Every structure is written in C-alpha cells, then in structure tokens.
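The following block was generated as part of the benchmark described in Methods. Ligand: copper (II) ion.
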Amino acid sequence: MAGIDRAAIAFTIAITAIGAGFAFVGDSVDYSPPAATTAPKVMTDTSEPKAQADPFADIAEKVKEAPKQAMDEVKEEVEEVTEEVAEVVEDLGEVVIEETLEMTSGPTTHIVDIPVGTSVPGCEETNACYLPADITINAGDTVEWINIDTAAHTVTGGSPADGPSGVFDSSLVMGNAKYAFTFEEAGSYDYFCMVHPWMVGSVTVN
Ligand SMILES: [Cu+2]
C-alpha cells in the first residue's frame, strides 16, 4: 500500500515535473526510496518556478506601467499648462481687441465734471475747477461737461485774460445740467467760466 502511495505520489510529481518541463522524472519513478526524499524537493522545485514567475510578471507589469504612469503625469501637466496658456492667450486677445476697437472705433464722448464748491475761489489751487481740468481727445470726439454743483457755471472757449474765443460757449449751465461740444479740428482749446474767472480748463484735440 505504502509502495503504491509512494508510486502514486511519485507519478503525480512526475506529471507535475513534466508539466513544468523538468527532466528528473526517471529518478523519482525508478527508485522508490529516493523518490520519497526527492518528492519534497520536486514539490519545492516545481513550485519555485511558479513562485518566481509571478514576481517577474509583477515586475514586468510594473516596468510596463511605470512609463505609462510617467507619461500620464507628463500628459496631465502638459494639458494643465496648455489650458493656462490658452487662458493667457484668450485674455491677451481680449485686451488687443479692446485696444484695437478703442483705436479704430468712432468718436467717443469724454465727461468733465464741474465740481461742487467751485463758485468760491480755491479749486484753482489744485487745478480742480473742472475735473479733469485738462484732457486730450481725438478730433471728432465730444466733451460733455456735467455741472454737479448747485451754482450755475459756464464753459466758455478762451481765457479770463483774453476773453471768449468764440469757438464754443455754453452760456449758463444750471446745477445738475450739462453742456456738450464736439471738437472737429485738432488744436489746443483753453476755456473758462465767465461767472467765476478762477475756473479754467483746456481741451487738447489730436
Ligand atoms: Cu463757474
């Protein structure tokens, strides 16, 4: 019985060994006593290649996956940078479009305030009797003066010393009223308030 068992074990081992491609099948079959001693050896021998094959396979997979992961990371970074660049380009494009429109667009209107309290001297000390007191515009542009004061003022071309130039004159602009003038010709235009001669300003037309 023991002999058959051994033979059976040996046979099984032999089959396993053949399956694994080992050549010592004859030894385990021909000699029963050594077969008993070789049996555990064969067991370990046959299991070892399997045990070795798995780690190698894992390593191989890892080696295969490593560049993949690295590439994925690089791809992600490239995508992020590309998105950022696209945003910057978009922003720059908008700025260029805005500036181009500003340069190529038609006449615009510029606002000048006539501030509160200008009916008494003092604003001339900071050149703030019209705000802004000096502006530069393009030919064809319009300047609109808004009197946010309660007192009436004028916007009169010329200067207090030389008097009205006759180019433009608002006559009295009441509180909260406004006056607009379109400058068609390039030049430098001084103006003042006929009621309060300390109030002076200028429009430079390019
Ligand atoms: Cu005035």
